[in-house]
Every structure is written in structure tokens, then in C-alpha cells.
Amino acid sequence: MSVSEAVAARKSVRAFTSQQVDPADLRRLLVDAAQAASGGNVQPWRLWVLTGEVLETFRAKVRGLREEFPMGQEPEYDVYPPDLWEPYRSRRFKNGQDLYAAIGIPREDKAGRRAQFGNNFDFFGAPAAVLVGIDRRMGPPQWSDVGMYLQNVMLLAVERGLATCPQETWTSWHKVVYETLDIPEDVMLFCGLAIGYEDLEHPINTWRSDRADPSEWIDDATLRAQ
Ligand SMILES: Cc1cc2nc3c(=O)[nH]c(=O)nc-3n(C[C@H](O)[C@H](O)[C@H](O)COP(=O)(O)O)c2cc1C
Question: What backbone torsions phi and psi does residue 194 show, to the nearest 5 degrees?
Fold first, then answer.
């Protein structure tokens, strides 16, 4: 598989089969992804891998709190800036609309939407999950380094026939994460990453998100002039 093919094939998968991920393969993938570039080569990513009993115990703990907090607890950081503006506001809105439409949940079905959103907190049923953190003292440049690492993980996963979904929504459960796992106080949870094999039968996975027209974000007049 070429890099171009992996980039084109990668998508966020929100339903997984029960097939387990080989632990040695998963570790290899996570280690190989660290070939990512990072400013000053500081490699600021920190990872906690959840599989088997540890993952089930963690899931059960979150499940126990979901009735009280159906949309999660207080997030540790703003996933989006408050009062998101255009064009980002519309893009975000459309993404949500398209996702719910793909699984036949109409706009007025608030309970259905809540239930689908709540699947985030089950890692969408994935057999493996990674929690990704970063030293709290790091700033935007290092957060972007973590993003590059994550992209490598997701592309290497595609190459191995695995599927992923990055999940910022886990910031809403940071308290449970810190209570349950041995994460040093100076590390902040950035996101979760569900990993497993795509459930090809599930309608949510048949949907592909679209992209803004390149003219909205690239000024390539010099290229076009040539
Ligand atoms: C850092 C990051 C966090 C994300 N968090 C979530 C999440 O919490 N829940 C979710 O369903 N999708 C999440 N996504 C997936 C995005 O919605 C998705 O990448 C976007 O809609 C584009 O679709 P694609 O990944 O299928 O190409 C996240 C993506 C990124 C990069």
C-alpha cells in the first residue's frame, strides 16, 4: 500500500468487530509511529494503552457514570473555541448532520443523537484504545507534534488493516482517567484513540466526511500562473 493509498483510505471508524488486535503488532505500530517529526525532536507524546481486562474495567467505570453525565463530565479544555465562527461553524455543523443522517437519526431525535454520541464513551466498541497525553507545560507547537504522531498511528493502522477513531471527547472524562490510570499529574489528557477492525456491516462506517473546496484554504495563484 502506498502512502497516498493509506491517506485516501483512512477515515474515522465508529463501529468495530470483536476481533482482537495482536498486542505485539499494536505495540510495534505505536512505536513505529514515533518516527513522526516534532519541533526540536522533543517527541512530546505520552501514551496509555488499554486492552483486555484493563479496558473493560475502565469502560465499566465510565458506564456507571453515564446516567448521571450522559454527555460526559466537565471537559478539561475547550474542544472548540467558544462561539465557533465561520466557516468552521458550518463545517462542524454539517459534519454532525451528515453523520447522524448516515445512520437515520433525524435532527429532532435528541435521545437518538445522545445515544450515538454516548458511543464515544465506549470507544465505539473497539477492542483496544489508547489515551494520548502531553506535558501540561507544552504549548501549541508541541500539541501539533502530538497530532503528527497520531496521524502516523492512523496511517500505519490502515496499512495493517486496522481502523481508528481519534476522540477528543475523552477530555470530558479526564477525572475518571486520572483516577483510574497511573498518569502523572504533569500530563494532560489530549484524546483517546479507538483501535480495532472496522465493522463493515455498520451503516455509520459507510459514511465518508467531505472536505472544503481547496479554494477556501489555499492561495495558490503562483502555482496556477505557471
Ligand atoms: C484530534 C481529533 C479528535 C477527534 N475527536 C472525535 C471524537 O471525540 N468523536 C468522534 O466521533 N470523532 C472525532 N474525531 C473525528 C473527526 O470528526 C473526523 O476526523 C472528521 O470528521 C473527518 O472525518 P474522517 O476522519 O473520517 O476523515 C476527531 C478527530 C481528531 C483529529
Answer: -80, 135
